[in-house]
Amino acid sequence: MKFQQQWGHKLPELCSEVAPTPLRGGRLLYLNRALADELALPDTETLQKSAVWWGGELLAGMRPVAQVYSGHQFGVWAGQLGDGRGLLLGEQQLPTGDSVEWHLKGAGKTPYSRMGDGRAVLRSTLREFLASEAMHGLGIATTRALSIATGEELVQREVAEPGAMLIRVAQSHLRFGHFEHLFHRQQVEALKKLADYSIETFWPELACESDRYFLWFADIVRRTGTMIGQWQSVGFAHGVMNTDNMSLLGLTLDYGPYAFMDDYQPGLIGNHSDYQGRYAFENQPTVGLWNLNRLAHALSGLLSADKLKLALKEYEPALMAAWGERMRGKLGLYAADTQDNDLLIELFTLMAREKADYTRTFRLLSYAADSDKGGLLRDEFIDRPAFESWFTRYQQRLVKETIDPQTRQARMLAINPALVLRNYLAQEAINAAEQGDTTVLASLHAALQNPFAQHLDDSALAKPPPEWGKQLVISCSS
Ligand code: AMP
Ligand code: MG
Questions:
Q1: Which sequence spans correspond to the domains of the chain?
Q2: What is the pLDDT of residues 353-387, one digit of tens each?
Q3: What are the φ and ψ backbone dihedral angles of 233, each rounded to 5 degrees?
C-alpha cells in the first residue's frame, strides 16, 4: 500500500494538518473484503493487525488533513463548514496507476468542528457503509466504504451511542463547497488553482483545451444530472442535498438521513428535520440544478455568464437521458414509442394511489411482463380492474418490441433490483451490530453487492417491509 498527500501539498490554503484522535479500545468491526481486493490490499489477517481503522496508526505516506469548504444549507448561505470530524488520510496509489483518497470519518475534532464533538456513531457509520455499497451495487456513482471500526467510547446524541469510525474511499472528495468557499473569500488565484488542480487530476483530457473551464464545468453539470436521474430511477432520496454535500465528480456523497423508498411516494422526505420538504424525493432534480447554479456563481471569475448558462443547459438533458434510459429498461421497452411516457405516468399514478412498493413493483413486472394477467404483480394491487387495464395496454405495447421474451426478462431482472437498502433493513443490521453481532450486516452487505441476483427473490430481504419498518423516523444526528 503506497500513500501520498497531494491535496495538503498542493492546496494548503484549503486544509489544516490534524492527527486523528484514536477511539479508546478501538477495534476493526467490519471490513469490506471485496473493496479491499479491488484496492489490492493485503489479506484480512494482516489488515487486522493495523490500528489505522480507528485512528490509532498512520500507514506510510499518510499525512492527514481536514479540508475546509463552505456551502449553502437548506437554501441559505451557511459560511464556513469543512471536515468537522473527517480527515483525508492520503491518496493510495493503486497498482493500476490510479489513485483513491482514504477519508477517516469520526476521527475527532478539527479546526472546523464548530460545536461538534468530531465523532460519529455506529448507527450512522453503518448506514453510510451500507448505503454507499448498495449504491455501487446498483451501478450508481458513489463514494465507497472500506471499514467500520468501533471502540469503548460512547458518543452523546439524543442518547449515548457507541462511537465508530468509517474509512471512506473515493477518487476525490472535492465538493461544490470548496469553490464556494474561495469565491466567498475572494481568493481569486486560489480558486483558479483549485480549478486547474481538478482538471489536471480528474479531467486530464481537457488540460490542453483552450475552452477547458467550459468543457469541465459542462461535464460537472452532466455528471450531476446523470447521478440525480439515476437516484430517481431507484427511488433514492438523499435527504441533505446541501452544496457542501455535492461532489464535483458526480459521486453520491455524505449519506445521512437518506431513504430508498418503500411505498411509491413522490413526496417522500427522508430527513425528519426537513420540515418544508426542500429535499423531498421529487424535488431532487430541481435542487440539483439550484446547487449547480451556486457552483456556477462561484466560477464566475473563470467563465462568462453566457458560458455558464450554456453549460447549465446540459443538466436537464443529462438527467432525462439517465432517468429515461433506466426507466425504459425497468419497463423492458427498448424501441422508442411516443406513448411510452404516458404508460409510465399511468403506472406511477396507480402505484401512488395504491401505495405500491416501488422496488417490488418493477421486480415483479420483470417476471410478469409476458404472463397472462400480470402474475404475482396483479396481487399487489387492490384495484384489480385499474391494474388490468394498465397491464393490457402495457402488453399491447410490448408487441412492438422485437426482442424475444427470455432476453427481455433477463434484461429487466438486471435493472430491477430484488433488493434495495430499505431503512428497516439497515436498522436490523444496526441493532445486531450494537450488540456485537455483525452477521446481519455481513449478509446484507453480501446481498447488496449483487441486488439483481435471482436467489434473492426467495429470501426475506426481498419481502415487503413490515409496517414498523415503513414508519422509521431518521434523525439527522449522526
Ligand atoms: P453533514 O450533515 O454530516 O454533511 O455535516 C455538515 C457539517 O457538520 C460538516 O462540516 C461536518 O463536518 C460537520 N459535522 C457533522 N457532525 C459533526 C460532529 N459530530 N462533529 C464535528 N463536526 C460535525
Ligand atoms: Mg457533509
A1: 2-170, 189-325, 331-413, 423-470
A2: 999 999 999 999 999 999 989 999 999 999 999 99
A3: -70, -25
